[in-house]
């Protein structure tokens, strides 16, 4: 049972709709601007350090950010993402972000109509600890761009739920920076429509 599930998940998440898809032709700006489908994004993300060696061929320099959840790169030239410019990007488990020299993520989020979904004060109260003394305030918000469910059929026993979202956040390991990008998520669904 596990092998067919794994094979279906890999096929769904890494097989772009276009049979001629070439991950080396994908622009990091297109990925940041949520212009890809989930399989195309995943194909691109796997190719960064995979066989295609996109990072090396594009002259990206790996940066040790001290955050195990982010693979950070410095680009050889700045890129523009909306009103912002940066030479630093990072990949997380489900997306790509531009690392902007903007201390307050709310400045970026406001232009996108994104609210902070993270109530840090409540979290600190709930666990009974004081907020960080350095004044760091967590910001975590997103705006869903694509929310699509494809149910299982008689011909295909697995369905999928796709979510593509514009994201704005910050992390304590990158003080004074705002993370602005796109998350690409896909869940495999069973015949009952529930996640597997």
Quote the average pLDDT: 86
Shape: globular
User: Count of helices?
Assistant: 6
Strand content: 25-35%
Return the string of H and E elements: HHHHEEEEHHEEE
Q: How many discrete domains?
A: 1
How are the strands ordered across the major sheet? 1-2-3-4-7-6-5
Share of helical residues: 10-25%
Structural class: alpha+beta
Oligomer: single chain
**Total strands:** 7
Terminal residue distance:
11 Å
Radius of gyration: 18 Å
Low-confidence stretches: 1-15
Sheet with most strands: 7 strands, antiparallel
Topology:
Layout: H1 2-14, H2 28-32, H3 38-47, H4 54-57, E1 61-63, E2 71-81, E3 84-91, E4 95-100, H5 105-112, H6 120-127, E5 140-150, E6 159-169, E7 178-189
Antiparallel strand pairs: 1-2, 2-3, 3-4, 4-7, 5-6, 6-7
Structure description:
This protein is of the alpha+beta class. Helix content is 24%, strand content 32%. A 7-stranded antiparallel sheet has the order 1-2-3-4-7-6-5. A hairpin with an 8-residue loop joins strand 6 (159-169) and strand 7. The longest helix is centred in the N-terminal third of the chain and has 13 residues, at 2-14. The radius of gyration is 18 Å and the shape is globular. 31% of the residues are buried. The model is unreliable at 1-15 (pLDDT under 50).
